[in-house]
Amino acid sequence: MIATLAAGAYVLLGALAIHALTTDGLRTLSEAETKSLLRELPYRFEFQPVHRPQGASGAVAGRVIGPHRTVVRFGVSLGRGGAPVSLGPYTDLGDATGGETFRVTDDAVIVVNGTITEGRQIHTKAQWNESATMIVDIEEKLCKATEGKLCAI
Question: Burial code of 128-141, b = ≥16 C-beta within 10 A, e = fewer?
Answer without folding.
Answer: bebbbebbebbbbe
